[in-house]
Amino acid sequence: MTKFKGLFLSFILILSFSLARVVFADTGPKPSMEFQFKFDPGVEESTIVSGIFYECSLPDCTDAVPLEEVGPQGLYCELDSCRALGYGFAPFHILLIEFSDGVIRRSNTFETAGFDSYYTVTVRPDDLMVEARLSLGTSLPASWNFIACACMLMGAGLVIGLIVFFVRRSAKK
Predict the structure, then answer these.
(1) CA 4 from chain center: how many Å?
(2) Could you write out the DSSP letters of every residue in 102-124?
(3) On the CB side of 16, how many CA atoms lie within 13 Å of its CA?
(4) Which residues touch 34 (CB under 8 Å, ≥6 apart)?
(5) pLDDT digit string (tens) for 77-119?
(6) Antiparallel, parallel or unpaired: β 32-39 and 116-123
(7) Half-sphere exposure of residue 7, counting CA atoms within 13 Å on the CB side?
(8) Residues whose CB falls within 8 Å of the CB of residue 28, separated by 6 or more in sequence, listed in order
(9) pLDDT, position 69
(10) Is 106:127 a contact under the CB 8 Å cutoff?
């Protein structure tokens, strides 16, 4: 009997550590955009100081408004890359980036390339050229995550049920 209890507790301990993940109170996947910067020849390389991500409904971006920073939504820049996270994106966008050389460069108007979009941003002397990159990505669709969790829960329930069955069966003998 104590052998099964030890086995059961070990199983629960291993299961609890293997299922641990970082969770956010704001559930569900969010669309994102990743921007990698490269410099044109002749343009002095500098780092990113700050950025503004504009969203537009019109293709010419005459209705541009900055992406509102609410919860996890916003534009986050590091020294050589930026990432935009949103609850949903408008169809068209413009980037405005300030560099450490003191120049503020504006991008061309570009479209959302997908749920998780990847872009190459070419830094030119006076502006930015944003182009979508094809990426196969590594994340699974939300439906596959749900199916995987459901299968793990059913498997754990089956194992626990078998353990209880064999413990009770051996106790009757």
Answers:
(1) 41
(2) S-EEEEPPEE--SSEEEEEEEE-
(3) 6
(4) 81, 82, 83, 116, 117, 118, 119
(5) 998 999 999 888 889 999 999 999 889 999 999 988 888 889 9
(6) parallel
(7) 11
(8) 142
(9) 86
(10) yes
Residue written as token pair 């609850």: 87
Residue whose entry in the numeric block shows the structure tokens 């969790």: 149
Q: What does pTM read for this prediction?
A: 0.60
CA distance 130 to 94: 9
Query: HSE (CB half, 13 Å, CA atoms) of 13?
Result: 6
pLDDT tens-digit readout, 108-160: 999 888 888 899 999 998 899 999 887 554 444 555 566 767 788 888 888 89
Q: 118 near 133, Cβ under 8 Å? A: yes
Q: Residue 69: CB partners within 8 Å, gap ≥ 6?
A: none
How confident is the model over 23-41, as pLDDT tens digits? 555 567 788 899 999 999 9
